[in-house]
Specification:
This protein is an alpha/beta fold. It has one domain: Rossmann fold. About 40% of the residues lie in helices and about 15% in strands. The chain is built from twelve helices and eight strands. It has an eight-stranded mixed beta sheet, sandwiched between helices. A hairpin with a 2-residue loop joins strand 1 and strand 2. Helix 1 packs across helix 7 and helix 3 crosses helix 4. The chain starts with a helix and ends in an 11-residue tail after the last helix. One of its GO terms (biological process) is acylglycerol catabolic process. Belongs to the AB hydrolase superfamily. It is an enzyme of class 3 (hydrolase). GO terms for molecular function: monoacylglycerol lipase activity. Pfam families: Abhydrolase_6.
Length: about 325
């Protein structure tokens, strides 16, 4: 009983901090209901001179992943950060929604519901969200004026990472071993943070326990999503759709990424000559957390370099 009370208290503190941070940055949380399916998202600003920006987070994360970076984006921009299908405040349904194509369909449903596609918008995705963002841009080219992929999943990487080695061990064990991205103890949480971040932080045990407590009730769901995005139709979805992307594209990658190797940037650049590639020194997979100011600056430089309004950006032929 005391343990449950302690978990609830830690969860409440965690939720309070996110609410406080969103309010400080001027973000509001809203829900979009689409025929029994509900999306949760945060937003700031209104459509204007620059294109609106939609941000898609990675596996087992949520819309507040972007708060560190939003802090450094101009306040007049129209920004939307949506909880991906099944994550945080967005509805959980069947596993079909968690394949990359399934997530693309759901995000398109969200875009239509909030009428974001009245003008072409800039799409940003990181990790799993990068896989989804790339396939979205390939599937709905008229809606996208430009796209930024941050350490995207969904590619056959020329070089292996530490996480690839974990995956091989998982496959050989028929997925009986624990998944590094789904921690269930403070020790596993610390290992995951070391895997995802090049910067080393000394995190107190109590904080690690709190992070685990927040995730534990969702671990079965995360495992379901993980298995779905590793499936044959999702695992390399981005690479299989690269040739269909017509919007100007930017790739941002941490050189020390241990989850998806930075060599993936070469794969994207070879498929889409002329795309912008920004590689960050002393940075791992969690680019948005490790280099928020730099990432925001790079995205804004890219958007500004393409044109003044969402209607003037030239697509690839």
């Amino acid at each position: 009983m005391l343990q449950r009370d302690s978990e609830r208290k830690r969860n409440s503190i965690y939720q309070f901090l996110n609410r406080y941070w969103r309010r400080t940055l001027g973000l509001q949380v809203r829900y979009a209901d689409c025929g029994g399916y509900r999306f949760c998202y945060s937003y700031r600003g209104k459509p204007g001179f620059r294109p609106s920006i939609l941000m898609l987070h990675g596996f087992s994360a949520h819309k507040d992943t972007w708060l560190t970076m939003v802090k450094y984006l101009p306040k007049h921009l129209h920004i939307l950060c949506v909880d991906m299908p099944g994550h945080e405040g967005t509805t959980r349904t069947n596993s079909e929604d968690y394949s990359i194509q399934g997530q693309v369909k759901r995000i398109h449903q969200f875009v239509e519901n909030v009428r974001l596609n009245r003008k072409p918008f800039h799409l940003v995705g990181t990790s799993m969200g990068g896989n989804v963002a790339g396939v979205y841009a390939a599937s709905f080219p008229s809606e996208i004026c430009s796209i930024t992929l941050i350490c995207p999943a969904g590619i056959r990487y020329p070089c292996e990472t530490k996480f690839d080695n974990h995956l091989q061990d998982l496959e050989h064990s028929h997925y009986t071993l624990s998944i590094p991205l789904i921690p269930s103890t403070p020790e596993e949480m610390e290992d995951m943070l070391r895997l995802c971040s090049h910067v080393r932080f000394k995190i107190p045990q109590q904080i690690l326990q709190g992070l685990v407590d927040v995730r534990l009730p969702h671990n079965d769901f995360y495992q379901e999503v993980f298995m779905e995005i590793l499936g044959e139709n999702s695992r390399y979805a981005l690479q299989e759709h690269l040739h269909l992307i017509t919007a100007p594209l930017q790739v941002i990658w941490g050189k020390q990424d241990q989850v998806v190797d930075v060599s993936g940037a070469v794969v994207v650049a070879e498929a889409l000559p002329g795309c912008r590639v920004d590689l960050l020194e002393n940075c791992g997979h969690s680019v948005v957390m490790e280099r928020p100011r730099r990432t925001a600056k790079l995205i804004m430089e890219f958007i500004i370099s393409l044109g003044t309004t969402s209607g003037t950006i030239k697509k690839r032929s």
